[in-house]
Amino acid sequence: MTIEHDAPATMRDGVVLRADVYRPTTGGPWPVLLARPPYGKNMPMLAGLMDPVGKARRGFIVIVQDTRGRFASDGEWEPWTFEMDDGYDTVRWAAALPGANGSVGMFGASYFGNTQWMAALAKPPELKAIAPMVTWSEPDDGLFARGGASELGITVPWSLMQGADTLLRRHAGDPMALGQSLMALVGDLDAVADTTYWELPAGRHPVFERHGIRELGFERSRREPEWSASCRVAGRQSEVDLPSLHTGGWYDIFCQGTLDNFTAMRAAGRPATLVMGPWSHTGQMGYLGEVNFGMAASAELLGFRGRLADLELGWFSRWLTPDAEDTAVADAPRSGLPPVLLFVMGVNQWREEQEWPLARAVDTDLFLRAGDRLAFQAPESEEGTDTYTYDPADPVPTTGGALLMSNEFPPGPLNQAAVEARPDVLVYTTDPLVEELEVTGRVQAFIHAATDAPTTDWVVRLCDVDTRGVSRNVVDGIVRATAAPGEFTEQVVDLWSTSYVFLAGHRIRVHVTSSNFPRWDRNLNTGEPIDQGTRSRPARQEIAHDATRPSRIVLPVIPALTSGQ
User: Fold this and answer.
1) pTM for the complete prediction?
2) N or C, fewer C-beta in 10 Å, the chain?
3) pLDDT above 70: percentage of residues in the chain
4) What is the pLDDT of residues 145-188, one digit of tens each?
5) Counting Cβ atoms within 10 Å, is residue 322 exposed (0-12), middle (13-18) or buried (19+)?
6) Helices 152-170 and 175-190 meet at what angle, rounded to 10?
7) Residue among 136, 121, 141, 319 at smallest CA distance from 238
8) Residues designated catalytic
């Protein structure tokens, strides 16, 4: 192959973006694969994920372009704002390069999964397929916020890390100022767990003003809805008339976004394929958190179907060759992938399906009961209430989950013993299961709750307790609520989705609490706006679980006769 470095592409407003172009040297013309990351097209951490050399060896022209205002590209860095227009212009430029066959596919993860959606929404005629990996759908449901609370855990370190290139450009002619500014930035990144996350107000975080870096979080998305809409996919999938390959992880911060994008594309009648593994945002191996899911769980084996990267290339070959539209049938197995491939945790097996969500799933209630019990039987009488005090000065620490944070807070299933020992965490547990129970689909909780504060948060977590008594998290969620002090209201908490088998002899456990910090910002219980609040107060929290106020978690249970098929 040949590699052309910093190939220029001129956008409609005259700004030049630069890309590295990898070309096979025999045969042709070739289909084009395009990635548009903001992290540096030569970043070593991305080399394995993008693998442009491997893709070129398989007969593709591969283009990796720095987005506007990043690294080799000109212009001003304003996340998401220009990706639709720049994506359109870049696809058209890529399709016309020497040796290209005129068909372009886009690939990549997270931010540059979203750049695919933005380009697809702009409808360049040469774009024939997209393969977004671990990418959100609704930015206020996983990227900027969740349940009305700020996704502080990702927005603070991610924004600081993106700020490094901003400082390099700002102080390019002043080495001393550059060194000082970078040292200060790294200092705040290094101290994020102990200091930076804790600063207030969370909605106008002081660290961004301190370094002169753009605020990229929930409060800005509320102040500037047009800006946040520039990365919104939710509700617009039907505008994308392209085949799509969606790859996600059960412990990825954008787990539900991946599923929602796939579901919407299917509902719009578009060819769509889904792969969900026991993975995090940055890891696709067979071990995550404290659980070994097995070697076959990794993206390198995919249940001995082959490397996910190779199967993705087979999928692209199907759609980017000239006769693809004449010969390809939606969901045909020619790519080596079924319509839906799920990893079922607990039994640790890959399973092929035809749909998501699974039509055979049965919503099943598990009720919070007196005496810290969790039962399939609803309460028939008064059982009293459970109470605790939530103090924002001493929040429940983030311990595992579907998250992307600083390294002190690893994702995945972790032992919840320290969390469950706290007095501000209510714990409800079933008896040992007589037979295995599979939960595959979206989990929700309906909690009857009261507080003496003008506003507070409710966090619900689903856990698996093994035969040794070790409790590990499966899914969780949060909702920010406002009600009259002392008034019981039913709070609906979306825990997102999973595919998990609770084995015989294990117990199902549910936590109810009011914080998960620093993943989600602390509700200060005062009612002050998030961009102004600096004072906090404790709140007395109360959970009801009786016949008239049946607090419960709803599990999509797969009937036993079909479990494992």
Assistant:
1) 0.96
2) C
3) 97
4) 999 999 999 999 999 999 998 999 999 999 999 999 999 999 99
5) exposed
6) 170
7) 121
8) 110, 252, 281
